[in-house]
Amino acid sequence: MAAHTDPNCIFCKIIAGQIPSFKLVETDKTFAFLDIGPLSKGHALVIPKYHGAKLHDIPDDSLTELLPIAKKLAIATGAVDYNILQNNGRIAHQQVDHVHFHMIPKPSDSDKEGLVVGWPTKAGDMAELKAYAEEIKGKL
Predict the structure, then answer these.
(1) Which residues 6+ apart lie within 8 Å of 48 measured at CB?
(2) Contacts 24+ apart (CB under 8 A), 91-94
(3) Which residue in 43, 98, 100, 102 is the catalytic one?
(4) What is the pLDDT of residues 12-31, one digit of tens each?
(5) Quick check: is 100 catalytic?
(6) pTM value?
(7) Which of 30, 52, 74, 98 could disulfide-pair with 65, CB 3.0 to 4.6 Å?
């Protein structure tokens, strides 16, 4: 297992084999398994073995396999439509403080299966967006 773990983390315990899981993929950096509270058939979690609560807590070299594995899982499940979801922080709906990506098949346009999302868009102020883009670029 990766050198950076948390003995109280449920996902670290799953990686260590202390809690059973329906493992799908395991590499030196990454672990993927079926979600035990699935939103649809094939709902899986892809996690780095390096423990960190938020995406910015994980070294870049521990992130390299996450999306390729999520892609492989989407293909393997036969999902035509699906969501790849990653939340950071409680108010952003993160429930487990270990970075994880959900691969959630969306088998129909029904609200009964898969992820159901509200997206409260609003018109952007172009001058504010331009200024903010410049501010962000200055910090990169």
Answers:
(1) 2, 29, 30, 58, 62, 63, 66, 99
(2) 94/53, 94/54
(3) 100
(4) 999 999 999 999 999 999 99
(5) yes
(6) 0.89
(7) 30
